[in-house]
């Protein structure tokens, strides 16, 4: 479903050239729940931004659902983001002026759904996260965990093929974090592919597959532990264990 | 999506009321000044003859001696007008000038009033499409033989007779009884193109009397009485025969053939006057100008007005530059929200459109407020600075033009801020919220 081959991302300034990702390779199959961990500055967010078509890349090939993402126009990228990808952010990123229903409705507006269709989907998505009764509330009237559930509802309303979650529990206490994680697991069980960046090793272990990004490269621990690894992963894994 | 963007724009305005008000004020002041000058310019530039503009002609003669006045005069003398009236070529024609008469009625309680009066031929009403409420012009016979007939407008009819059908009633003008034959509705062409000598934007006269009474009643001319030569004037008849009783002369020539024919007739008249020794200069000639040419030749809309409109547009530009700065600050502050919208599926074009709609709404509000400024400014100009009433009326088209200019100008000012916000990289802001 998601295939990145030899992806490189270089940030350039007048004086410095920073390699955020280098020879980055990753295959994610439909229905998987992949946790991405790694130290700060390792390239996790850059990977997520590229996966979510929010940023371009310097080199390599990226296929999403068989479509080559390189050199897509802004309109096509936006359409793919809207139809196939759902985003969940650490800071929830709800629009403070809009109530819950209006927040969930935003991606559906851009997709051109009718008012009737939007209403049905918004109610269903909010019901799925247990907040249907509070759809007229503003985000500021909710707790952090509830806000994250609204963000999840917004991501789910368009019925995306996969969810990209950037530290979805990072701003939540442990109870809220567990609830959100359980919700994500339920969503994954219903067939949605999830890639979740996290710092929390315990949450990462709950995913089906656990990869680590180190210095802009992938180390697939799940495959490493099962003995199915290549030399590169081996060397990164060794380096990580030495460190 | 337009209504969605409109809803977002309204929420955004409500969210930052002070900043939004500043922007609306900035554009409204620019629009107010622009619309004020534009309105004055437009009202001054109107060709009030409309479709008949190319059929109505002012007649002029270059008749003065050499080494006197250089240019063809805008009016003709009484004796020329008397002669031109004999032409059978025009469909309608009228000599005319402005005078002033004391107005009374047979009611001894009616206090006399001094009114400006237009001395005309009966064709005047048809020439200039003067609308009648009661009656009509006097008979043609009166133009030839004289007759104490008068046409008044509804204001004078109200003052003198308390309104209603006053046909047949008697109005005293300089104590002479005139029979009312017609009452006109309000008629006030602006500019007053049939006589630009007495102020192109003055109001029309409200009383009309026959030109044929001029030598009998010895009407004074409330107009130009200059002469290009020294003349010994002892009697009113001397004045009529002089080169200093100037008046206006208009003809209606409805086809190009008629126009050509009249010009030939006029050329023959000039030759005749040369033969009898009245027109001495070799290049003496007659000329006709339609309404459009006439207004242009007399510089009814001064160049200063155009300069003023230009300056006010420059002021609008300054206001828009201010608005641009405020918009930039407002939009860039919203970058994190835009980042979220981009992440969940909005294209750059959709973000661009959303912000342009907001700018357009601000422009529209500024346009409406600007109209109120313009209305107030015109009121102050007319009451405190004696701007002519006809120029101080807010033209109805301005209710459409002002918002259009305001919205267009605001959108132009908003293009750069909208482009900046839609071009920002969303990923930069998603982490930082």
TrEMBL record, chain A:
It comes from the Bacteria. CDD domains: ABC_MJ0796_LolCDE_FtsE. The keyword Methyltransferase does not apply. GO terms for molecular function: ATP binding; ATP hydrolysis activity; transmembrane transporter activity. Transmembrane segments: none annotated. One of its GO terms (cellular component) is transmembrane transporter complex. Keywords: ATP-binding, Nucleotide-binding, Transport. The keyword Metal-binding does not apply. Residues 2-240 form the ABC transporter domain. InterPro entries: AAA+_ATPase, ABC_transporter-like_ATP-bd, ABC_transporter-like_CS, ABC_transpr_LolD-like, MacB-like_ATP-bd, P-loop_NTPase. Belongs to the ABC transporter superfamily. Macrolide exporter (TC 3.A.1.122) family. This is ABC transporter ATP-binding protein.
TrEMBL record, chain B:
Its main location: membrane. Residues 311-426 form the ABC3 transporter permease C-terminal domain. It comes from the Bacteria. The chain crosses the membrane at residues 21-41, 307-332, 356-378, 398-419. Keywords: Cell membrane, Membrane, Transmembrane, Transmembrane helix. One of its GO terms (cellular component) is plasma membrane. GO terms for molecular function: transmembrane transporter activity. Residues 20-267 form the MacB-like periplasmic core domain. It is found in: Cell membrane. It is a multi-pass membrane protein. PANTHER family: ABC-TYPE MACROLIDE FAMILY EXPORT SYSTEM PERMEASE COMPONENT 2, MEMBRANE COMPONENT OF TRANSPORTER-RELATED. This is ABC transporter permease.
């Amino acid at each position: 479903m998601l295939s990145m081959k030899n992806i490189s991302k270089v940030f350039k300034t007048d004086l410095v050239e920073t390699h955020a990702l280098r020879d980055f390779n990753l295959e994610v199959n439909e229905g998987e729940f992949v946790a991405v961990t790694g130290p700060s500055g390792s390239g996790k967010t850059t990977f997520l931004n590229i996966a979510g078509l929010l940023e371009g890349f310097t080199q390599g090939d990226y296929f999403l659902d068989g479509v080559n993402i390189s050199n897509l126009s802004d309109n096509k990228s936006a359409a793919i983001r809207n139809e196939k990808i759902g985003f969940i952010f650490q800071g929830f990123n709800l629009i403070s002026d809009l109530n819950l229903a209006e927040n969930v409705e935003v991606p559906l507006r851009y997709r051109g759904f009718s008012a009737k269709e939007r209403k049905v989907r918004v109610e269903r998505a909010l019901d799925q996260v247990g907040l249907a009764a509070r759809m007229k509330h503003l985000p500021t009237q909710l707790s952090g965990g509830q806000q994250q559930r609204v963000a999840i509802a917004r991501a789910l309303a368009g019925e995306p093929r996969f969810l990209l979650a950037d530290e979805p529990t990072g701003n939540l206490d442990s109870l809220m974090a567990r609830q959100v994680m359980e919700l994500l697991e339920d969503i994954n069980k219903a067939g949605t592919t999830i890639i979740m960046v996290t710092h929390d090793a315990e949450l990462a272990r709950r995913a089906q597959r656990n990869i680590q990004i180190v210095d802009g490269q992938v180390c697939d621990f799940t495959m490493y532990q099962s003995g199915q690894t290549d030399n590169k992963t081996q060397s990164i894994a060794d380096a990580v264990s030495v460190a | 999506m337009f209504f969605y963007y409109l809803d977002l724009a309204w929420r955004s305005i409500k969210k930052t009321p002070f900043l939004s008000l500043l922007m609306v004020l900035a554009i409204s002041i620019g629009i107010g000044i622009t619309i004020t000058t534009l309105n004055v310019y437009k009202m001054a530039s109107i060709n009030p003859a409309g479709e008949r503009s190319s059929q109505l002609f002012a007649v002029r003669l270059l008749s003065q001696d050499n080494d006197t006045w250089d240019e063809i005069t805008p009016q003709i003398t009484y004796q020329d007008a008397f002669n031109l009236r004999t032409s059978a070529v025009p469909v309608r024609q009228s000599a005319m000038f402005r005078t002033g008469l004391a107005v009374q009625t047979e009611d001894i309680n009616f206090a006399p009033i001094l009114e400006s009066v237009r001395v005309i031929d009966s064709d005047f009403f048809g020439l200039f499409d003067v609308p009648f409420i009661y009656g009509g012009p006097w008979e043609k016979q009166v133009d030839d033989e004289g007759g104490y007939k008068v046409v008044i407008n509804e204001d004078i009819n109200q003052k003198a007779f308390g309104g209603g059908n006053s046909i047949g009633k008697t109005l005293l003008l300089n104590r002479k009884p005139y029979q009312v034959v017609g009452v006109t509705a309000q008629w006030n062409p602006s500019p007053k193109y049939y006589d630009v000598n007495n102020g192109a934007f003055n109001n029309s006269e409200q009383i009309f009397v026959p030109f044929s009474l001029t030598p009998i009643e010895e009407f004074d001319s409330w107009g130009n009485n200059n002469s290009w030569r020294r003349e010994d004037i002892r009697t009113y008849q001397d004045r009529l025969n002089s080169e200093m009783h100037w008046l206006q002369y208009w003809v209606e020539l409805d086809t190009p053939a008629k126009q050509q024919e009249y010009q030939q007739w006029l050329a023959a008249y000039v030759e005749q006057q040369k033969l009898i020794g009245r027109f001495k200069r070799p290049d003496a000639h007659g000329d006709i100008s339609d309404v459009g040419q006439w207004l242009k030749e007399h510089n009814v809309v001064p160049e200063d007005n155009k300069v003023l409109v230009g300056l006010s547009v420059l002021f609008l530009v300054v206001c828009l530059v201010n608005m641009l700065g405020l918009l930039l600050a407002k939009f860039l502050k919203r970058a994190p929200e835009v980042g979220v919208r981009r992440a969940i599926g909005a294209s750059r074009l959709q973000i661009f459109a959303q912000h342009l709609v907001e700018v357009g709404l601000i422009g529209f509000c500024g346009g409406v407020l600007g109209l109120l400024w313009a209305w107030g400014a015109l009121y102050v100009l007319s009451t405190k600075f004696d701007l002519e009433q006809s120029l101080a009326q807010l033209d109805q088209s301005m209710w459409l033009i002002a918002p259009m200019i305001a919205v267009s100008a605001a959108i132009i000012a908003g293009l750069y801020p909208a482009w900046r916000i839609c071009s920002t990289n969303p990923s930069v802001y998603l982490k930082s919220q």
